[in-house]
């Protein structure tokens, strides 16, 4: 469905989505009003038809019959127009909902979106620390997939860095899909039109490996078409007095036995094809959208070409299947199915065509859903590229060139509150030690770097003015929780997390470590000694990364390893007695602390500390290590 004409759209993708959402809502209301008028007309025409036909049939003038017949034709014409209006209203609702979801993504209202259909399992080395998947996550911000395979593909890409050639192919595909808003929304609308939020092709694929009743009992392929003809023929002959009336009950009893014996398999296959109407048709529309698109990016062209089976594209193959499934849906017709199934072996005769399709096509259709999931994942990454005016495609470089980001920011922060910073790690064996006041932005910086690196290594855009990213193994220890169930203390939980950070740190590609307040679960002296040991262990093995800490003494590593360690900080600023934060990264070690001031603000008497009065902060600078 094309976009309604909403006039001059406000500048920027957010304004465009808001305007299109409102325009489609107005279109929905307009179609709703027209439908109401059609409904009244249909009732009036139906009443007139009954009156005229009744008059003609029961002694009235013959002209009444002709008039009634004409009114019946008019009824069907008006009903056809009403159906078109109903379909247009439903299409407008779908497009309105699509634009509304994009508005929610762009304004940070992630809690109002459906939860992600796939998550990265617990124990992943960085997913939970960086909020990659789950509620209020990067995945939820990106996810426009509407198949479970698409959701799983997107989650897997975010959590597993690809190789450089794969990344570069995905980047080209994302760049092509980013401006193609209509194509991406057609992919979304194909599923939402069914009333579902997501389709799962896995049961469909799984059933392809199972044998249906005809495969296990080949004789059914001959019996099922022939036996009902005999049964019905004997029934008609019995009613005509040619044979005894009870004779047709013999083959009917055989048919009832066959139905009872094969019913579990019939029900299983029907469920796998989407017991609810529209399952096969929705996938056919998804595939047709992909098939009809004209792509130039090599990855998209390759995915599109791999869809064909026996010279037919999936939508054509699915359309052949849909014909059989539509007949099979008589199962939903209650008493009609109860009569037809034993009398005509309805389900089994439908299954002849379905099983033939499964044999010829179904065994090779699993790849369809994998390919569709990849295209959906690419389209989701393209959403960020299109909607975030500050998003760019990163350059993938050799690890020896280090990690460089200009104007890097966190994609989950609202646009009006984001503060971008420049950071750089000149190569393996380098780190930035980030000190700073509470709430000043240390953890946010680490997450901004980690999230953008994960996006870059998935083949997606980054929220930065420019970024050069080597292929890295991200490892994080930022969000630690003790476990009452396992009896693990906070310190034990942190040690387990650190084990994943330092494990095989000397291997390629290098580790990017993101460490926030190391060893919080022990005393100050042990924390300092242990944190120094962890950082030195990683640097000696060629890892690179960031360490956020309140331990000012840890910053002395810069004096000991000036070529490897660099100190940077965030700070608070006091203006007219009010504490504020500018979230800008500065050179050197923080000179102030707001912890005692925050205690005083909640009513706790604390000793005076002259450093609390220092509200002057040095100007922000580009940071390099």
Could you describe the 3D structure shown?
- With 625 residues, the chain is of the alpha/beta class.
- It folds into four domains: 13-107; 116-194 and 375-385, no CATH class; 210-368, no CATH class; 391-613, 3-Layer(aba) Sandwich (Rossmann fold).
- Helix content is 53%, strand content 10%.
- α15 (335-344) packs across α16 (346-360).
- The radius of gyration is 33 Å and the shape is elongated.
- The two termini are 52 Å apart.
Structural class comes to: alpha/beta
Strand order of the largest sheet: 8-9-10-5-11-14
Termini distance?
52 Å
CATH architecture title of the largest domain: 3-Layer(aba) Sandwich
What is the number of helices?
A: 22
Classified by CATH, the class of the largest domain is Alpha Beta
Percent helix: 40-55%
The average pLDDT is: 83
Keywords:
625 residues, alpha/beta, 4 domains, six-stranded mixed beta sheet, four-stranded mixed beta sheet, 14 strands, elongated
Describe the structure in brief.
This protein has 625 residues and is α/β, with parallel strands linked by helices. It is built from 22 helices and 14 strands. Helix 10 packs across helix 11.
What is the topological layout?
Elements: H1 13-57, H2 62-106, H3 127-130, H4 138-142, H5 148-159, H6 164-177, H7 181-192, H8 202-207, H9 213-216, H10 220-239, H11 249-272, H12 279-292, H13 298-305, H14 314-328, H15 335-344, H16 346-360, H17 366-387, E1 391-392, E2 395-397, E3 403-408, E4 421-425, E5 431-436, H18 442-458, E6 462-463, E7 466-470, E8 473-477, H19 490-502, E9 511-516, H20 524-540, E10 544-549, H21 557-560, E11 565-570, E12 572-575, E13 578-581, E14 586-587, H22 595-601
Parallel strand pairs: 2-7, 5-10, 5-11, 8-9, 9-10
Antiparallel strand pairs: 1-6, 3-4, 3-7, 11-14, 12-13
Helix pairs in contact: 1-2, 2-7, 5-17, 6-17, 7-12, 10-11, 11-15, 12-14, 14-16, 15-16
């Amino acid at each position: 469905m094309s976009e309604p004409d909403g006039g001059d759209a406000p500048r920027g993708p957010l304004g465009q989505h808001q305007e299109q959402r409102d325009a489609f809502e107005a279109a929905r209301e307009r179609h709703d009003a027209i439908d109401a008028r059609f409904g009244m007309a249909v009732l009036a025409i139906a009443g007139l038809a009954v009156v005229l036909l009744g008059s003609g049939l029961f002694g009235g003038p013959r002209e009444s019959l002709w008039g009634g017949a004409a009114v019946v034709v008019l009824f069907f014409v008006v009903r056809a127009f009403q159906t078109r209006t109903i379909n247009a209203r439903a299409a407008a609702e779908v497009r309105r909902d699509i634009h509304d979801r994009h508005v929610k993504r762009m304004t940070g209202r992630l809690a109002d979106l459906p939860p992600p259909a796939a998550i990265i399992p617990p124990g992943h080395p960085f997913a939970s620390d960086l909020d990659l998947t789950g509620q209020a996550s990067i995945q939820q911000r990106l996810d426009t997939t509407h198949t479970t395979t698409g959701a799983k593909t997107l989650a897997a890409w975010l959590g597993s860095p690809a190789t450089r050639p794969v990344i570069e192919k995905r980047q080209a595909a994302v760049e092509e899909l980013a401006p193609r808003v209509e194509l991406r929304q057609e992919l979304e609308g194909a599923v939402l039109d069914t009333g579902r939020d997501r389709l799962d092709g896995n049961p469909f694929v799984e059933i392809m490996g199972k044998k249906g009743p005809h495969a296990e009992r080949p004789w059914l392929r001959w019996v099922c078409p022939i036996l009902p003809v005999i049964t019905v023929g004997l029934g008609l002959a019995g009613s005509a007095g040619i044979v005894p009336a009870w004779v047709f009950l013999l083959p009917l009893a055989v048919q009832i036995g066959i139905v009872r014996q094969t019913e579990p398999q019939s029900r299983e296959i029907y469920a796998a094809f989407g017991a609810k109407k529209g399952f096969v048709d929705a996938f056919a529309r998804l595939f047709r959208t992909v098939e009809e698109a004209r792509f130039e990016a090599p990855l998209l062209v390759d995915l599109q070409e791999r869809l064909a089976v026996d010279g037919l594209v999936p939508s054509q193959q699915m359309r052949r299947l849909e014909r059989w499934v539509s007949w099979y849906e008589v199962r939903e017709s209650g008493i009609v199915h109860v009569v037809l199934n034993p009398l005509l072996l309805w389900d089994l005769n439908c299954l002849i065509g379905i099983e033939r399709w499964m044999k010829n096509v179904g065994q090779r259709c699993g790849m369809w859903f994998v390919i569709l999931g990849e295209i959906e994942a690419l389209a989701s990454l393209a959403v960020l590229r299109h909607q975030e005016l500050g998003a760019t495609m990163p350059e993938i470089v050799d690890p020896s060139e280090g990690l460089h980001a200009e104007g890097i920011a966190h994609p989950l922060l609202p646009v009006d509150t984001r503060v971008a910073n420049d950071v750089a790690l000149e190569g393996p064996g380098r780190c930035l030690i980030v000190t700073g006041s509470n709430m000043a932005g240390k953890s946010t910086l680490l997450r901004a770097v980690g999230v953008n690196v994960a996006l870059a290594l998935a083949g997606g855009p980054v929220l930065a003015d420019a970024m050069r990213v080597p292929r890295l193994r991200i490892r994080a220890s930022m969000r630690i929780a003790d476990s009452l169930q396992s009896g693990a203390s906070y310190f034990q939980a942190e040690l387990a997390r650190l084990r994943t950070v330092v494990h095989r740190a000397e291997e390629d590609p290098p580790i990017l470590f993101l460490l926030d307040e190391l060893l919080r679960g022990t005393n100050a002296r042990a924390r300092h000694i242990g944190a120094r040991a962890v950082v030195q262990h990683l640097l000696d093995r060629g890892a690179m990364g960031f360490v956020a800490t309140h331990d000012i003494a840890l910053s002395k590593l810069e004096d000991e390893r000036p070529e490897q360690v660099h100190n940077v900080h965030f700070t608070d600023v006091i203006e007219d007695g009010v504490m504020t934060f500018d979230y800008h990264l500065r050179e050197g070690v923080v000179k102030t602390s707001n912890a005692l001031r925050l205690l005083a603000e909640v009513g706790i008497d604390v000793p005076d500390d002259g450093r609390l009065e220092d509200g002057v902060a040095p100007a922000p600078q580009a940071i390099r290590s």
